[in-house]
Specification:
By secondary structure, the chain is mainly β. The protein contains no helices and ten strands. It has a ten-stranded antiparallel β-barrel. It comes from Actinocorallia libanotica.
Length: 162
Amino acid sequence: MPGDDNTPAPRPENRRLNALVGRWRSQGRMTATPTDPEIRIAGSDTYEWLAGEHFLIHRVDVRMNDEHVEVIEMIGPYDPASRTYPMRSFDNRGEFVTMRASVDDDGVWTFAGETERATLVIAEDGGSMTAEWERTDDGSNWRHWMDMSFTKMPDSSAVPCP
């Protein structure tokens, strides 16, 4: 429990991450390019608090066409100077990505890294989300990359931060 045994309480800003907590059915597509066909994506995303509720663990388990992809990501701790949540993800291909998440007053999330960025919109009822992703090869020209939708699974039992 936060606060037990002199453990510092989580930042109040962490409560905003509760909107993500749970297990989600994920599906989407990576757009075709002149050299690559469209790729279908289907699987699940799970968000749960690490003990202490300073970090949110995000697990991805999807199929991208015939390829099985697993990712684990740590979100947090909240950085008051930049008003963002650092994100560090690691996948089963041996790759890692760092990004920053922020949320506006309307609850729209932005994830931004050096070569990719996304806008995530959570439905008012909290039961679904959509994400639009972009990529850049040169740091200035962004192209549409991926569309994802998420539906919260009814058996979602991850406990939110108080």
